[in-house]
Write a structure and sequence with these properties.
Number of domains: 1
CATH class: Alpha Beta
Number of helices: 3
CATH topology: Nuclear Transport Factor 2, Chain: A
Strand content: 25-35%
Shape: globular
Order of helices and strands: EEEEEEHHHEEE
Strand order of the largest sheet: 7-8-9
Largest sheet: 3 strands, antiparallel
Helix content: 10-25%
Distance between the termini: 41 Å
Radius of gyration: 16 Å
Number of strands: 9
Length: 146
Amino acid sequence: MSDLAFQIDENTGEIDLVFTAPDLVTDGGLKGAIITALFTDLRADDGDDRHGNRRGWWGESYLGPWGSKLWLLERAAATDANLMLAKDYAEKSLRPLVTAGVAKDISVTPERVKRASGDMLKLTVRVTRPDYVEETFEFEFAWSDI
């Protein structure tokens, strides 16, 4: 399976496609699909407390739910309960990769990491492919703790 390659700017946290003129770069892994699943905003449910801002990705109107609710934790306190919520949000967002058959199993381990700039939420994603090859991906993003 070939997928578009993504890069994450470690200073800004911005995610972009990798481009080498005149083409987009592809990779043979699942990193692009994982990044898209984790960091595309899934529309919040009515019960999610976001002061009326349900966000979401416009494509959900046509394709159904896609992405994660990790964005709901951007301003949440860095607590053990929110670590477990991050795990739940991440695992739910990655389930379609198992359903589609591109992964046999996916597990997520959340961790709070202290940096000079503040607390970071680190997600370690372990993927077992259908051929039992295992891959591990790590992602960190700021936890504003407001």
